[in-house]
Amino acid sequence: MNKTLDITREHCPMTFVKTKIELSKLQAGDLLEVLLSEGEPLDNVPRNAREQGYEVVAVEHLAGTTYKVTIKK
């Protein structure tokens, strides 16, 4: 199952808080695609996900300042 979370308007620390809440709803092996802005969110969300034991599958630039981080639970 894939799920998408848009946190482009959120600021740290809420970016990873919301990401972690969505990850907790998924089953092992599911993917969460997180849309976020460059800067602190782009630095912190992938790093915190790895620290929590999740696999960051991809980080992709979409357009402007928006990125997509794909995390596997």
Please explain how this structure is put together.
This protein has 73 residues and is α+β, with helices and mostly antiparallel strands. The protein has one domain (2-72): TusA-like domain (Translation Initiation Factor IF3, 2-Layer Sandwich). Helix content is 32%, strand content 38%. The protein has 2 helices and 4 strands. It has helices at 14-24, 40-51, and strands at 2-6, 31-37, 55-63, 66-72. Strands 1-2-4-3 form a 4-stranded mixed sheet, with helices on one face. 22% of the residues are buried. The mean pLDDT is 96.
CATH homologous superfamily, by name?
Answer: TusA-like domain
Oligomer: single chain
How would you characterize the largest beta sheet? 4 strands, mixed
> Which H/E pattern describes the elements?
EHEHEE
CATH class wording: Alpha Beta
Mean of residue pLDDT? Answer: 96
Which structural class is indicated by helix and strand composition? alpha+beta
The radius of gyration computed from the alpha-carbon positions, rounded to a whole number of angstroms, is 11 Å
* N-to-C CA distance: 11 Å
Number of strands: 4
Q: How many distinct domains?
A: 1
CATH architecture descriptor: 2-Layer Sandwich
- The low-confidence runs, each spanning 5 or more residues with pLDDT under 50, are none
Determine the strand fraction and express it as a percent band. 35-45%
How helix-rich are the residues, as a percent range?
25-40%
- Give the helix tally: 2
Shape: globular
**Order of the strands making up the biggest sheet:** 1-2-4-3
CATH topology: Translation Initiation Factor IF3
